[in-house]
Design brief:
The chain is mainly alpha-helical and about 475 residues long. It contains 17 helices and five strands. Helix 12 runs antiparallel to helix 13.
Amino acid sequence: MEPSTLIITYTFIILTTLTLIIIKLSGKPRRKLNLPPGPKPWPIIGNLNLIGALPHRSIHQLSQTYGPIMQLKLGSFPVVVVSSVEMAKAVLNTQDVTFASRPKTAAGKHITYNYSGILWSPYGPYWRQAHKMCIMELFTPKRLESYEYIRNQELKYLIHDLYEMKPTTVITLKDYLSIMNVNIISRMVLGRKFTDEGSENSIVSPEEFKKMLDELFLLSGVLNIGDSIPWLDFLDLQGYIKRMKKLRKKFDWFLEHVLDEHNERMTSEGESFVAKDMVDVLLQLAADPNLEIKLGRDSVKAFTLDFFVGGIDSSTLTLEWAMSELLKQPQILAKAIEELDRVTGKNQWVYEKDIPNLPYIEAIVKETMRMHPVAPTFVPRFRPERFIGKAIDVISNHFELLPFGAGRRMCPGYSIGLKVVQVSLANLLHGFKWMLPHGMKAENLNMDEIFRLSTPRKVPLEVVLEPRLPSHIYFL
């Protein structure tokens, strides 16, 4: 949201609700609590007036004043912000259970079937069962390995499409990355892809499917005023709830068809049925009479939407930011190319099993996730060498780097995103020479970002590329 829009919204709230403020002239005094430091909140809006168009940057700036643990009041709700390794460990490890739940948001209610997915569901028996299903059934190493051929195929399709480009063609890189990631997740979760023109038995057109996904990514991360000030929620001041309900209807119609197709195959194949995708697995679990908490049809649809939210936008944006940072700093790009030529050679592609032999590529991915994480914080410098020779991974054992969260609420599908980003970046760098268009200098590359569930570039990255390997390699 633009700053001017925020100011207008807050002014409207204040002017229309001043009559509702009751000044307590008497009453029982409250027990004084030992609260963290923080800015003094205003009536009604709390500290929302201090949160700008990039909330993560605003919070970072406030932490410079109030320290590694501070309290903000966002509308009606107190919020504790931690911004150091020690404080993160205390919250996400020592006090993990205390902070394991989720606030109730309009997105969780109106998009993911009244908090029926794993992303927005509150901590409790339902979430614990959902988390167990993810760990024990949906994201097991064996199942993810069985989908490797899908990830390889879609990456090869991307490489082939880029190879067919004329050397002077300026492309918007995100468009190509997005198609690859949508197809990977669609095939893994739904069993087929929905981006091909003229495909048989298509439920929605590729254009409509893309619009639905773009709206899903946007609305899943908006700052809805009603989430912070619940008694204003019914006014839908920003119009987000209306859009969420409309999107929910579109996805519900789409997912009902998907589930019907899967149920028909399960019925027709009977005892010989074998799950091929994640919807198959979810439907099998929903039919399990021994499940502690019944998994309804809405739950299956909510899980499916969560997989799209968590699996597509984050990988696409991480790859785009990695390429942006490398083009901004050619000396780092050159070191990455040198490692690929030395370790992989120019007569083959990089596969997932090869990544451990490419520590500099791994370090670039970690540094990109540090600077542009899905759960954003602001840090200023791009230096992959900080991870070379150090046992710092992207899971919750190391609180210096938390791109997938930590503790009980850590993203259960983190390994998919990591595999896709690492092997895709390695092959894009290995297969092509990358340049900025129109003689643009590296120092002039716009690196501004915008805020939503993740932090996309404000201006999509445009590039020119040309193949750098022998031509027959692009057809393997």
